[in-house]
Write a structure and sequence with these properties.
The complex is a heterodimer of chains A (304) and B (245). Chain A has 11 helices and 14 strands. Chain A is α/β, with parallel strands linked by helices and 304 residues long. In chain A, the strands form 3 sheets. Chain A has a 6-stranded mixed sheet, with helices on both faces. Chain B is 82% helix and 0% strand. Chain B is elongated and about 65 Å long. Classes of the chains: A alpha/beta (304), B mainly alpha (245). At the A-B interface, helix 2, helix 3 and helix 5 of A face helix 1, helix 4 and helix 10 of B.
């Protein structure tokens, strides 16, 4: 389990992460969404025991990352894929994995490296120098490197950034495989489709944690989902009456009205208001917000 | 700090540096060329001037040997700049620092990778130089001249200290340098005081005797210790991840 309480990091006068509190259960794939500079990487680095915590606390797999000795133990237990693959161009694929297996003091190193080459389909490039690999292969190697110590917790910082769709799909398949193996995965990204496809829950971060929920729940909670009300007949009196009852001006279409639904103005109230205003409804549809709508709305609300 | 981690890192850096022809050539060829060329200067001067006066030979030889101090201030930088700034440019320090390896192990591993091959190369070249120089001065002095007490002090005390000091300065420079070449150029300034000493010795205004070697060793040891403290502070996990840019 990963648990943070009011986790805060300041760099001089700049607060990069402000009082962030969340829990991630074992085996969960958790997405941290946020714009550039939102504090996602800083949060991951604090959780990985790479940089200090200014205030608050973070406990990873029962270890307090504020304590240097425990932070070292955290690093031994987790796998980290940084935003940049950060590979050594002169080493081969096998040498890269062997180097990190040595630093992680992996027992039976050779077998472990062979397993990873096989599992991430890197075998055919095992003797290739890193400098000769494409971005997709490099990312796959960086992922293999993050898994060299068989971690139970994996932190992935923008794992599909700059990858083509095919390579991104392969990386997502690896993340799903990690979940199937019971790993806890924390995924930093600003790619919403990635979160939808891979994450059990998502936290939206912009220095502060603005929202935390399952992707579907986040979409449902979006307030500006438009309701399309089909009507037998639309006239100005009806529009005026509906506007008065709901306190919002509907958009008029050829065969009806479009009215934004909110938690205080749910679909049922919209339908009731239209009926009370004399409208004869032929259909009523509320469009589910996309995660992008929900994400942008959370950011917009936080900016108010 | 774990010895096996230090060795793993040093071996990786050595291998990476060795694969670069420019670094390999500099480390192997530069001292060797000097080792072969400098005794030829003595032979040439002896032939041109109708025989060198025996009295000038010891000073000349010791100042020539001191030329290898210049090599020891430049060659570790070739490797250290590659292994430090190179990693910074490739952003490969973060994955390494995300392992349980201690920062001291990383630092010492990188220092060993920079210092050991250059020391071995310069020691070998110095040995070649001394053999060839002894052969060159035997007709003048009637015997070889190396090694002298100051020779051992220079090779075994001053040189390792200068190499360590140079690497410490490389670490400090690497923290701010954006690319390998500029790091090498800035760190190359370390050469200047030793170049000045070499010139002073050549002109006869400085005697590179054992007392001078001890004085220089003491100064360099103090500077090496001071720069190590600052380098260790600079080479900190958080410092690297948040400020090395």
């Amino acid at each position: 389990m990963i648990q943070t309480e009011a986790l805060t990091r300041r760099f001089g006068p700049v607060t990069a992460v402000d009082a962030v509190t969340f829990q991630i259960a074992d085996g969960e794939v958790f997405g941290l969404l946020g714009p550039n500079g939102a504090g996602k990487t800083t949060t991951l680095r604090m959780l990985a025991g790479l940089i200090g915590v200014t205030e608050g606390r973070a406990v990873v797999d029962g270890l307090d990352v504020r304590d240097p000795a425990q932070a070292a133990q955290v690093r031994a237990r987790l796998g980290l894929l940084p935003e940049e693959p950060g590979l050594y161009p002169d080493l081969t694929v096998r040498e890269t994995l062997d180097f990190f297996a040595r630093l992680q003091h992996v027992p039976d190193r050779r077998r472990r490296v062979d397993d990873l080459l096989d599992r991430l389909a890197l075998g055919e490039r095992a003797s290739s120098r890193v400098a000769t690999l494409s971005k997709g292969w490099k990312q796959r190697l960086a992922l293999a490197r993050a898994l060299v110590n068989e971690p139970r917790i994996v932190f992935l910082d923008e794992p599909t950034a700059n990858l083509d769709p095919e390579a991104s799909q392969e990386v997502r398949a690896i993340i799903r495989d990690l979940r199937d193996r019971g790993c806890t995965v924390v995924l930093n990204t600003h790619r919403l489709e990635e979160v939808e496809r891979t994450c059990d829950r998502v936290g939206i971060l912009r220095t502060r944690l603005l929202a935390i929920a399952e992707p579907r729940a986040l979409r449902r909670a979006a307030t500006d989902a438009p309701a399309t009300i089909g009507l037998e007949h639309v006239d100005a009196d009806l529009v005026h009456a509906v506007a008065q009852r709901l306190g919002v001006q509907p958009d008029v279409t050829e065969d009806g009205l479009v009215i934004p639904c909110t938690p205080s103005r749910p679909m049922a109230d919209v339908v009731a208001a239209v009926v009370a205003a004399g409208g004869r409804i032929t259909r009523a549809v509320v469009a589910e917000s996309s995660l992008e709508d929900a994400y942008l709305e959370v950011l917009r609300d936080a900016g108010r | 700090m774990r010895v096996d981690d230090v060795w793993t890192i040093a071996r990786k850096d050595l291998r990476g540096a060795w694969q670069r022809r420019g670094i390999r050539n500099a480390i192997v060829l530069f001292p060797l060329v000097a080792a072969v060329a400098l005794p030829r200067v003595i032979v040439f001067a002896d032939e041109r001037n109708g025989g060198l006066p025996p009295a000038v030979v010891p000073g000349l030889l010791q100042s020539f040997l001191f030329f290898f101090m210049i090599a020891i201030t430049t060659l570790p930088t070739a490797i250290a700049a590659y292994s430090l700034v190179g990693e910074k440019v490739e952003r490969s320090l973060e994955p390494m620092l995300a392992t349980p390896v201690s920062v001291s192990s990383v630092l010492v591993g990188k220092m060993i990778a920079a210092v050991v091959p250059t020391l071995l190369s310069v020691w070998t070249a110095s040995a070649v130089f001394m053999v060839l120089a002894n052969r060159a001065v035997t007709p003048i002095l009637g015997h070889g001249w190396f090694p002298q007490p100051e020779t051992w002090l220079q090779l075994l005390v001053l040189m390792p200290l200068v190499a360590l000091m140079t690497v410490n300065i490389d670490i400090l420079v690497s923290a701010r340098a954006g690319d390998v070449r500029s790091a090498q150029q800035i760190a190359g300034l370390t050469t200047l005081p030793f170049g000045a000493i070499y010139m002073a010795a050549e002109m006869g205004s400085l005697t590179l005797d054992a007392a001078m070697m001890l004085r220089m060793s003491a100064i360099v040891a103090a500077v090496a210790a001071g720069t190590f403290v600052v380098a260790r502070r600079t080479f900190d996990r958080e410092e690297i991840l948040t400020r090395w840019s």
